[in-house]
Amino acid sequence: MDFVQRELSVDESFEYVDYPSENAQLFDTNSPPTDQSSFEEISIPKESYTEEPSSPTELPVGMDRVRTRAKPLTEEDFKLLLDEDGRLVDEHALRRAVFMGGVDPKIRKEVWQFLFGLYPCTSTYREREDLLLDYLMKYHELKSRWKTMLVLNAKPGASLLQQGLVARYQMEEQSNKLRSPDLCDDNPVTEWEIQQTNKLAAMETVDHPDFSILSRSCKNLDISIPEMEQKINFMKIQAQVFVNRLLIDINSLWKHLRVIDKDVPRTDRDQEFFKIQKDFTEDGMIMKINLVVMLLKEMDPSLLEHLEKQELGDLLFCHRWLLLGFKREFSFDDSLRCFEILSSHHLELNSIEAEKARRQEQMKEFQHIGGGTKIEACDGESDYTFELFMCLALLEECRDELLQCTDIAIVFNIINNLKIDLDDILLKSAKLFYKYCKKSVEDSFLMVETPPILPKVKKKNISFMGNKS
Amino acid sequence: MAAGPYNYSYIFKYIIIGDMGVGKSCLLHQFTEKKFMADCPHTIGVEFGTRIIEVSGQKIKLQIWDTAGQERFRAVTRSYYRGAAGALMVYDITRRSTYNHLSSWLTDARNLTNPNTVIFLIGNKSDLEAQRDVTYEEAKQFADENECSAKTGDNVEDAFLDTAKKIYQNIQDGSLDLNAAESGVQHKPATPRNPLNTDQTPSKEGCAC
């Protein structure tokens, strides 16, 4: 399948764009379903939604697109997304493919490099080689600085072993006092520091980055920080934060990463950075949990009411899910897959998918009321990220149990002992996502139709920035 | 798990608090399962354990809330303190920092629980005598404490039982008002699975979680 055809199909319909692969099964929704039980009616003809009268029982539009999950993105399919110089031509297609099925572990390293903005999608093979070298240099520079700082902060006359112990066990206490040449302008780097840095740098062997080492390290969590540091490069630190097992002060690490990072103006990465950072600050976490509360209030007020009666209306137990993208709920492999799927940001309220769904709903609604009123796109709360919809799906999953229960401890037990199938819950989340899109459109029409108070129709600037379409 | 009938006269809510890595989850596991959990993942939010114990001839169900120790999410963890009858404050005898932080844990525990909540200090990892960083005497000055090892199980039982005894004593001498919403103690609950059982029926000893 060629690129021209794909580009066309993006604008042409609300249906799935064919995945650019010879392997038609991957995303071709018209191919015979392999699992009959999870499949019902697959694709609704393009025109049908405008002709059929809408009824309350009708499936929300767009759901046909999320009726099934795909297989992980394979190496062959990924190669097809790259042009001859190695540019990732259609980032949207990559994000969709990752969202639909995750990534084959064999190419995870490569795909994550795009997904998390290590390399710009428009970079060629050659440019990436240069960038990598650049990153490596900066990484080792940073590491040396940290080592120097650790030496400076160790007790005078400490042996190497003692310094190591300080580094390994006392980081937490020391981190506030660490003098960082990167952060304090009034604290110039001394001659001695430079010497130390050079000495330490000379001792280093430059390892070629190898992502598989990290994957192994994730499983063997007792690996020491120095060992780990020897093996990781910039990309791995990002993933390392995901793993969140090291006794280092994550915030200072991030601040330092920013220092390396600032030379590379990449808005994608900035966004990714802030998104991930949210998980590691209390304010960010509480903000996210509040959003779940708001979303639940809109989508299932009676469940929220019940939880409020049990004094659980703050939904603080969602913390467990939102920390590190549901990592605790799945096996190691599934949690990695879940992480990349959430990080694909394919289905977000500011993504093209949501915009399509809304436009479709608007057309339908427009037909329904016989024309006449025409309003701007409805105001979707774009802070509702897909992971929040996943929280909602999980809450709905145990809704009946929750409604029956009046003991806080049992609520926690239900939440802690949920058995979740990743694909199943992703499908349900997507369904809720489209339901929300539909609802927000309906609400906006409702607003127009109900005088006497003239509603303020908010004009929404749909931003595509985060989704690089 | 034993499916036999069990019942109890009281439920006590406990919370376990303390710095990350002091062994809170291991203590709980040792107490409820009598086993040492060697490879224990970080607790996120809260985990639970229950066990029925006997104090002065009364069966008491301990409902133990094991909280996450990570400093970053104290605000979230704080929401679990409410209504605790007992708080086990844990530090690691081989890491002074965990001992130094006790005062902030104590402040939290005092502020967020009721005045009758029994706070019990536990120095964990007593099996690592060689790496000791905080002396027993020093901690003793801070509070009457109990040193134990979640690894060997030494004194773990006592820590939970002594706390329960103290709570029970408070109930007996009337200083703990059972009717107060936040007391952390529930008296004679209906057992949902065996609603016909009376509290007097003899029950199986041991762990019921």
From TrEMBL, chain A:
Q: This protein is called what?
A: Rab-GAP TBC domain-containing protein
| Record InterPro entries | Rab-GAP-TBC_dom (IPR000195), Rab-GAP_TBC_sf (IPR035969)
PANTHER family, per this entry? SI:DKEY-238D18.4, TBC1 DOMAIN FAMILY MEMBER GTPASE-ACTIVATING PROTEIN
Q: What is the organism field in this record?
A: Tegillarca granosa (Malaysian cockle)
Question: Is Heme one of the keywords UniProt gives this record?
Answer: no
Indicate yes or no for the key word ATP-binding.
no
Q: Pfam family example for this protein?
A: RabGAP-TBC
* Entries under Gene3D superfamilies matching the protein: Ypt/Rab-GAP domain of gyp1p, domain 3
- Keywords (A to Z) from UniProt: GTPase activation
Upper lineage? Eukaryota, Metazoa, Spiralia, Lophotrochozoa, Mollusca
UniProtKB/TrEMBL annotation, chain B:
Which sequence ranges form a coiled-coil region, renumbered to this chain?
none
Query: EC annotation?
Result: 3.6.5.2
Q: Which UniProt keywords apply?
A: Endosome, GTP-binding, Hydrolase, Lipoprotein, Membrane, Methylation, Nucleotide-binding, Prenylation
**What InterPro entries does its record include?**
P-loop_NTPase (IPR027417), Rab14 (IPR030702), Rab_GTPases_membrane_traffic (IPR050209), Small_GTP-bd (IPR005225), Small_GTPase (IPR001806)
Enzymatic reactions: GTP + H2O = GDP + phosphate + H(+)
Is Signal one of the keywords?
Answer: no
The annotated regions of Polar residues compositional bias extend over 194-203
- Which Gene3D superfamilies does the entry link to? P-loop containing nucleotide triphosphate hydrolases
Identify the stretch(es) annotated as Disordered: 183-209
> Which coarse location class applies to the principal site listed for this UniProt protein?
membrane
Membrane topology (UniProt)? Lipid-anchor
Cell location:
Early endosome membrane; Golgi apparatus, trans-Golgi network membrane
> Which Pfam families does the UniProt record give?
Ras
Task: Return the similarity comment.
Answer: Belongs to the small GTPase superfamily. Rab family.
Protein name in UniProt: Ras-related protein Rab-14
